[in-house]
């Protein structure tokens, strides 16, 4: 494993995406523990795509237009659902004072679905990992699994950091109804935009 891979993986992980936004929203809305559960779920959601890329199953998804489209629009629908949950006063994503915290398993499940229903991830890993292989076919799978494990651990650590930061800012933001209102609208707009981008993806 090279320093170049570690730097590339870190840049990819810290880039804001649906998982980061979800973790930030849960940290702001429900606190530190909720943000850790969100980070765990989002991280778990990339594992199926990672394994598909390592064992050559990603090609099946991306050679079948029907399967790709089905998974894609399931993901689009789910992102739009999260957008709706952000603007509802009692929604799971809404930032409100004195709200009850959702169960950890429910938060993690929602986070996992964000990535599981994103068919772009498997082809992303198929493009990310091979360039950093040593060139020895006998160790290729082991090397990809090792890099994949590092990527997963790095993802979880960075997402937790995002979530803890958001949770630390929670008390300040909850003092302003205007800030909460605009944050909820902002998160809804981001999820809707991500849904639109995913809808335009092609095999």
Can you describe what's shown?
The structure is a single chain. With 203 residues, the protein is mostly helical. The chain has one domain. 77% of the residues lie in helices and 0% in strands. The protein is built from nine helices and no strands. Helix 2 (18-30) runs antiparallel to helix 6 (104-116), helix 3 (32-54) packs parallel to helix 6 and helix 3 runs antiparallel to helix 8. The chain starts with a helix and ends with a helix. The model has no long low-confidence stretch (mean pLDDT 84).
Structure keywords:
mainly alpha; globular
Could you outline the blueprint of secondary structure elements for this entry?
Layout lengths: L2 H12 L3 H13 L1 H23 L3 H6 L1 H23 L16 H13 L3 H9 L11 H34 L3 H23 L4
Helix pairs in contact: 1-8, 2-3, 2-6, 2-8, 2-9, 3-6, 3-7, 3-8, 5-9
Distance between the termini: 30 Å
Shape: globular
Round the Cα radius of gyration to an integer and report it: 18 Å
Largest sheet: none
pLDDT under 50 segments (min length 5)? none
Q: What's the number of domains?
A: 1
Q: How many distinct helices? A: 9
Could you write a compact summary of the structure shown?
Helices cover 77% and strands 0% of the residues.
